[in-house]
Amino acid sequence: MGKRVKLTVAYDGTNYCGWQIQPNGNTIESELNRHLSELLQEEIRVVGASRTDAGVHALGNVAVFDTSARMPADKISYAMNTRLPEDIRIQDSREVPQDFHPRFCKTIKTYEYRICHRRFPNPCERLYSLFYYWDLDVERMRAGAAHLVGEHDFSSFCTSRPEITNHVRTIYSLEIEERGDMITLSVRGNGFLYNMVRIIAGTLLRVGNGTIQPEEIPEILAAKDRRRAGETARPQGLTLVRIEYPDYPDAFC
Amino acid sequence: MGKRVKLTVAYDGTNYCGWQIQPNGNTIESELNRHLSELLQEEIRVVGASRTDAGVHALGNVAVFDTSARMPADKISYAMNTRLPEDIRIQDSREVPQDFHPRFCKTIKTYEYRICHRRFPNPCERLYSLFYYWDLDVERMRAGAAHLVGEHDFSSFCTSRPEITNHVRTIYSLEIEERGDMITLSVRGNGFLYNMVRIIAGTLLRVGNGTIQPEEIPEILAAKDRRRAGETARPQGLTLVRIEYPDYPDAFC
């Protein structure tokens, strides 16, 4: 019986077709499997916590795998970082209990969505934010965001997937910071439906530009109708910042 | 007689061989000349304010050209941004007096140098910062930086070029901000020698890690010897933020 290892994985999603292995195209999952298998000299298949879409970034996605290799778990981060392409970097590697599962355990995830709000795009931010030209009232956005905090049915804020029937999730906090020309939405919750953060961002942009009133957010939630919310904001602005496992405090780096 | 037009140019320097036209390789200057010539239907050759190196970024470099085209100067930014590759974006275009010259007029330039200070690299910052692992004492860096502010002979802080004989420059301010894992040096002065900001950054890193004492900076300046200062920090961390023309207040956007 080998050990179970948890990796905290950061990546620039620009050059990948997302996390999950695809028949055509390079993915984060396939890069991890290939380099882990070469490093540990056995076939490794990671299980990821969050299957981010193409263009989405991560600072703290989580991948878990079992191995019988003798390399200490905490050394795997260093060894992998000499092998991986420079747009993927392991931030932490550690042994976790055999019953730890990156998706089925209770998790708290934090995402950031960045909006570069200026007259013309900043080329250095084009791959890591949404460029937005029109007026935005950040105080209105905060007032709208406040209605999303708490336990709600987020059917209006997701792209439906037939296998997901329960759309109730809890958002613990949704903060909006403005610093120079960068507006950052930071959202922490116990789970996120498909495209949920990007739809929240697109909806709060509409609140900010005046086409949705902050007070309409409860109605949009109650409608349970995707067409009532705003656009799905582009993936480049989204970063999966952190995944906490409250039942495994030692597993968090 | 046509008009003289000033462009404020932002670019991600990652995929360019710097500003200045090279026999082989793509440059910011050659992209501007090509697209301006196509847009205005006459041969345009810009004069740039700062010939940034390969990998260096800009939010506010300046290019000037003369044209007899009838397109209003302030419309050129919009027209150019539909033509340029997405890693170059004009931030402002305006008519300036015929005697305005981007290099020979008095200028105040602001550069930023970004240091990503963490245990493992953040892939999304790899092209826009220097990754630094070892301990840094930011208060020591600030103490060292204070000795560089003012009028000094910066011979120790430049890569020598035979055509430049006067190495006296004035730094008006040199501020160091730490925010999360990002340390940003912000330096404003009346002119910068070749590689000067990158050598200042490399030297202040040595002050931060303890291998140079803050009090040694005046001695390093006085030595007028490049070998006394720190390394030339990598270009990716450097951004030319802004160029002010104090004698032409209307030319500044």
Please describe the structure with a list of short key phrases separated by commas or semicolons.
alpha+beta; Alpha-Beta Plaits; 253 residues; homodimer; 2 domains; globular; 5 helices
Give the helices and strands, then pairings:
The structure is a homodimer.
Chain A: E1 3-11, H1 28-40, E2 47-48, E3 57-67, H2 73-81, E4 88-96, E5 108-117, E6 130-132, H3 138-146, E7 150-153, E8 168-179, E9 182-189, H4 196-209, H5 217-223, E10 238-244
Parallel strand pairs in A: 3-10, 5-6
Antiparallel strand pairs in A: 1-3, 1-4, 2-3, 5-9, 5-10, 7-8, 8-9
Helix pairs in contact in A: 3-4
What does this structure look like?
Two copies of one chain form a homodimer. Chain A has 253 residues and is of the alpha+beta class. Chain A has two domains: 3-97, Alpha-Beta Plaits (2-Layer Sandwich); 108-242, Pseudouridine synthase I, catalytic domain, C-terminal subdomain (Alpha-Beta Plaits). Chain A is 21% helix and 30% strand. Chain A has five helices and ten strands, in the order βαββαβββαβββααβ. In chain A, strands 1, 2, 3, 4, 5, 6, 7, 8, 9 and 10 form a ten-stranded mixed sheet that branches. In chain A, strand 2 and strand 3 form a beta hairpin. In chain A, helix 3 packs across helix 4 (196-209). The longest helix of chain A has 14 residues, at 196-209. The relative contact order of chain A is 0.19. At the A-B interface, strand 4 of A face strand 4 of B.
